[in-house]
Amino acid sequence: MQKIILDNLEEIGQQTLEMLKGPIVALSGGSTYKALLRFWAAHEKVKSMSFFPVDERLVGFDEEGNNWRVAYDNFFVPAGIPEQKDHLATGAEQFEALLKEEVGDPIVIDQVFLGMGDDGHTASLFPGGEYLDDHEVAVLETTSPKPPFPRVSLGLKSIWAASELIVVIPGANKASLVQRLLDGDTSLPITLAVQGHPDPILFLDRAAAGE
C-alpha cells in the first residue's frame, strides 16, 4: 500500500486531481468527497470521463442524503457534465446492469475512490455484514446502521478488481481508525478493501496520520 501524507484536504484535492485519469471512475459520497469534487470541477479533463457512484443511499435523487445529487450539484453541473446524472444507482440489479453496459463483464473500473466512515465502513460495506465474506458479488444491497438505511454498493469483488484504488481519509477523528487499518484490523471493512487490492493508494492529512 502506498501511503501519502499531505498537510490538508486542499493538497489532497490537488494531488488526486493530478491522478484522476479515468476514463471510468467510481466516486464515494460523504463530506470528504463533497469537498474534493469542488477541486476537480474546474478541470477540463473531467469532460472526457464517465463517473459512477461507489455506493448510494436508496432515496430519491431530490431527497436529502442522495450522494449523486451532491455530486451533481458540486461537480457535474459546475464541470459542465450534467449528463452524468444518468448514472444514478437505484438498486443492485439496475446498477450492476448499468456498469456492465459501460465496462463489460466482469466489472473492472479504471479508478475507484473510497473514503472511510467513523465506524471503519467503506462504500456501503459495514462492520459485521455477512456480505464481507462474499467475494463473488459485484454489486449488492446493504443496510446501514444509520438512516437512510437501505443502500446499494460495489462489493469487495468490484473494489479489488479496480485498476486503481485510491482511499482518502482526512481528519483527526479518523486517526485511531487509520492506525487500526495500518495494523491490519480486518474487522474494519476498509481494511478488507485495501488488503484485497494489489496496490492501493492511501491519502491522509497530517491529522488523520496522527502527526
Walkthrough of the structure:
The protein has 211 residues and is of the alpha/beta class. Helices cover 32% and strands 19% of the residues. It is globular. The two termini are 19 Å apart. The mean pLDDT is 96.
Which features characterize this protein?
single chain, alpha/beta, 6-stranded parallel sheet, 3-stranded antiparallel sheet, 7 helices, globular
Nutshell version of this structure?
With 211 residues, the chain is α/β, with parallel strands linked by helices. It has 7 helices and 9 strands, in the order βαβαββααβββαβααβ. The chain has a 6-stranded parallel sheet with strand order 1-9-8-5-2-3. A 3-stranded antiparallel sheet has the order 4-7-6.
Number of helices: 7
Q: Strand portion, in percent?
A: 15-25%
Q: Secondary-structure element sequence? A: EHEHEEHHEEEHEHHE
Average per-residue pLDDT, rounded, comes to 96
The stretches of 5 or more residues where confidence is low (pLDDT under 50) are none
Residues in helix, %? 25-40%
Number of strands: 9
Radius of gyration, whole Å? 16 Å
Describe the oligomeric state of these chains in a short phrase: single chain
Shape: globular
Protein structure class = alpha/beta
Distance between the termini: 19 Å
Lateral strand order in the biggest sheet: 1-9-8-5-2-3
| Sheet with the most strands, sense and barrel status | 6 strands, parallel
